[in-house]
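Quick start: read one record
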Amino acid sequence: MAEQTEQLDFLWEGKDKTGKINKGVFPAKSEAVAKAELRRQGYRVTKIKLKPKPLFKSRVKAITPGDIAVFSRQLATMLKAGVPLVQSFDIVGKGHENPSMQELLLSIKADIEGGDTLAEALNKRPLYFDELFCNLVEAGEQAGVLETLLDKIATYKEKTESMKKKIKKALTYPIAVVAVAFIVTTILLVFVVPVFADLFKSFGADLPAFTQMVVAMSEWMQVYWWVIIVSVVATVYTFGYFKKRSRNFNHFLDRVLLKVPVVGLILNKSAIARFARTLSTMSAAGVPLVDALESVSGACGNIVYADAVMKMREDVSTGHRLQFAMSQTQLFPHMVQQMIAIGEESGSIDAMLSKVADFYEEEVDNLVDNLSSLMEPIIMVILGTLVGGLVVAMYLPIFKMGSAI
């Protein structure tokens, strides 16, 4: 394959055949190539220079799963319209707003021009295209239905990303409020309570037990505030370290989260929805069940379910039916097992899995909405207890002195 030369942008000005002055930006490998191409298009170039790069480069924008979902939909639409694959990548890539995504798509286009299949080109970029994505694309290329499979991938990506965003939104709100409450409480203990404590000392009277406890906490924090900061940083670092490197820790964490009231129910149902949606998509693509289950295990979003799916794969590979393998895990509800059994009997397992996915995605939506409504009064109680408790502790001595007068 010929070596790829970086495209440069040239600012140019020139006259067309009618004598009208035109100007613009022209991408080319060199100034000579730019001039030759503009001359071929009927322009007499009077000025041309390399477009200067900005003094301060904007921060590189990361490629998100949402970008991949949009790309899948756009590419499927292009192929359905009869646009050749290489040209489709050129159109989608150059039209993308994210420079990082644009660079990724154009590099894939270069690999395809060099003789790679789309699946081979995607396999070289596992950071953005997982095994499931590549397997489906490969199945689509082999069966000659790439545009159909890309459409299914786009639908799958859009639904899973939508569900992830809703769950993150539901969990982010209470975490953010609790963090703010912690910061406000710390500020009150470090800066406000000492003022009241000095005032109370000037009175010389005995303080109520609750007020004494708050003052003692304030004095401790003024001296050992660094202990809290170090503890928080160390906890976050340790959590992140083991989350990235320890499968046993992740397994323990996922198992605990599945048992948390309300949140655990959401995570359980979302894992089932992902399982059903992914297996439905792969089954519709004609991927063998044993191979599909291996890819599905990584798409569940929970190690407990991932391990269960791999156990199901072992059972299916030894001749057991999928419904029986699911029942052995004791993770899937009876309704799901019966739907799978009906699908296996009727030969429409992909349609049944799609219905299961639709049902559980709707269940997750409802639970997330309910969680948001449920968390509001709980958060108010937490804030009222923390901040209100400090205020009451500071005013108790004043009330006591008032009653004594």
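DSSP finds 15 helices and three strands in the chain.
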